[in-house]
From TrEMBL:
This is Iron complex transport system permease protein. The chain crosses the membrane at residues 32-51, 86-107, 119-139, 145-163, 170-191, 218-240, 261-291, 328-348. CDD domains: TM_ABC_iron-siderophores_like (cd06550). Belongs to the binding-protein-dependent transport system permease family. FecCD subfamily. Its main location: membrane. It comes from Blastococcus haudaquaticus.
Length: 355
């Protein structure tokens, strides 16, 4: 079932025309203000999160430490103990937000996300298999690398099974749901046959968590995003045309098959590296692009705003789980609690539109 397959109509007044000499363009102020505001809030929220813990540090002291003016003890606590967790959260949210915007724009369907397409569950298969089959002896980069392979494998299967001289958004969602079901069954089977201690460790991982993250977790994801984000932004021109359908895209001179393949592969890469760093933090890629498109007032989820709002959601959810709730929970539990009602609302709205 597809939900909301038609693109949202753009508002009549889309921006302000700015002319500089012979060069002119349209400035869409909301699409500039939303990423800037999200960046400012993200910095402040990250500073608050860096200051929370057994040794509280005020926000001004955290900011001074980040610019190199902190004291020795504060430098160690902020930069070595707490900063890796926040940086991984920012990078994971950024990657998931961008991937969700790519998938939803390409498929013209707000249900298209790494969660519903089976990619995050594929990463779970890789990680759980590594934990269970190695008897818990695999450490270091072993589990993240296995999760990366699992996500990439499911992403490539999704691409191969969907490809029919191009990729259809409706077929993409159906194949993705099938891959999600198969991956879920594999995870359940691995957990059932595992030793109780290995099963407990695997279950903690598949909930999605930022606990005990180090710079070793952040570095591969940062390098991957340094490559994938510019490619995603470069593909935004093709995305603007793809949302209106294949025939329109061909008529406007877009190399349809190459553009579709590039979008799917970039999105798969973002999800694979994000899940390998922090586990499957669900529903971020599903919810954030739709929030971004409503805040910016555009016709499709904006990549930059979606990424920044994704980072804001992950860092904020992690802060809530550590400071507000009675017990510190994995951040993936809170994002699932927030995202599940939204998914139900999408399904109910789609059914009403269909009937």
């Amino acid at each position: 079932m597809t939900v909301g397959t038609a693109p949202r109509p753009a508002p009549l007044r889309t921006g302000t025309v700015v002319r500089v000499g012979r060069v002119s363009g349209i400035v869409r102020w909301r699409q500039l203000v939303v990423p800037l505001a999200a960046s400012v809030v993200l910095v402040l929220l990250s500073a608050v999160s860096l200051g929370r813990g057994d040794f509280p540090i005020s926000v001004p002291d955290v900011l001074r430490t980040l610019v190199g003016l902190g004291e020795g003890a504060q430098d160690f606590i902020v930069l070595e103990l707490r900063a890796p967790r926040i940086v991984v959260g920012v990078l994971v949210g950024l990657a998931l937000g961008v991937a969700g915007a790519l998938f939803q724009t390409f498929a013209r369907n707000p249900l298209a996300s790494p969660d519903t397409l089976g990619i995050t569950m594929g990463a779970s298969v890789g990680a759980v298999a590594a934990i269970v089959l190695s008897g818990g002896t695999l450490a270091g980069f072993g589990i993240p690398f296995s999760a990366l392979l699992g996500a990439l494998l499911v992403g490539l299967l999704l691409f191969a099974l969907t490809w029919r001289a191009g990729i259809d958004g409706y077929r993409l969602v159906l194949v993705g749901i099938a891959l999600w079901s198969v991956s879920t069954a594999l995870v359940d089977w691995l957990l059932t046959t595992a030793d109780i201690y290995d099963a407990a460790a695997a279950y903690v991982w598949i909930t999605g968590s930022l606990n005990a993250r180090t710079w070793e977790n952040a570095l591969p994801l940062a390098v991957a995003l340094a490559v994938l984000l510019p490619l995603a932004l470069a593909a935004s021109r093709s995305l603007a045309v793809l949302q209106f359908g294949d025939d329109t895209a061909r008529g406007l001179g877009v190399r349809l098959q190459a553009a579709q393949a590039a979008v799917v592969l970039i999105a798969n890469g973002c999800v694979a590296f994000a899940v390998s760093a922090a586990g499957p933090i669900t529903f971020v890629a599903l919810v954030v692009p739709q929030i971004a498109v409503r805040l910016t007032g555009g016709s499709r989820p904006p990549l930059l705003a979606s990424g920044l709002l994704g980072a804001l959601l992950v860092v904020g959810a992690d802060l809530v789980t550590r400071t507000v709730l009675p017990e510190a929970l994995p951040v993936g539990i809170l994002t699932a609690v927030l995202g599940a009602p939204y998914l139900l609302w999408l399904l109910v709205r789609g059914r009403r539109q269909f009937t």
